[in-house]
Amino acid sequence: MDIVFLDARDTATFNSLKELSRSYGAENARRILRRLDELRAAANLETLRTLPGRCHELKHDRAGQLAIDVRHPYRLIFAPANEPVPRKADGGLDWAGVTMIRILEVEDYHG
Questions:
Q1: Which of 4, 31, 47, 68 could make a disulfide contact with 42, Cβ separation 3.0–4.6 Å?
Q2: What are the residue ranges of helices labelled H in the chain?
Q3: Beta strand 2-5 pairing with 100-107
Q4: Long-range contact set of residues 7-16: C-beta below 8 Å, sequence gap at least 24
Q5: Helix or strand holding residue 75 (H, E)
Q6: Contact at 8 Å (CB) between 32 and 106?
Q7: Over the stretch 59-102, which tens digit does the pLDDT of each residue have?
Q8: What's the whole-model pTM score?
């Protein structure tokens, strides 16, 4: 999949072990980079259903976003970046049609 970021600052941060370590700690930084590599290697979002990391759609005020585990309690939060967002006939997200994502943040959204 193609990965885009919110801005140039996030692009620099998410592509640097040093910057990620500064923001999230060394272990989380390595895991974030591993997740990004897995996302880049996937043909589409559907591929992630078979990989470890519990990729899942979020609800309520985060509807339209997805998360994948980094290291408890942190999640890598992202959203489909395809225009338009691929949808199934019932209106749900078509995971197989999502080939581009936008990284939003890393956080503990339960905290």
A1: 47
A2: 8-14, 17-24, 26-41
A3: parallel
A4: 10/103, 14/103
A5: strand 74-80
A6: yes
A7: 999 999 999 999 888 999 999 999 999 999 999 999 999 999 99
A8: 0.93
Domains parsed from the chain with CATH numbers: 2-107 (3.30.2310.20)
What residues are paired with 75 via a beta bridge? 69, 107
Residue with tokens 């592509």: 15
Q: What is the gyration radius of the CA atoms in the chain, in angstroms?
A: 14
User: Which residue's structure tokens are 């509807």?
Assistant: 63
SS3 content of the chain, % helix, strand, coil (to 5): 40, 25, 35
> Which residue carries 């503990």 as its tokens?
108
Per-residue confidence (pLDDT) for residue 52, from 0 to 100 = 80
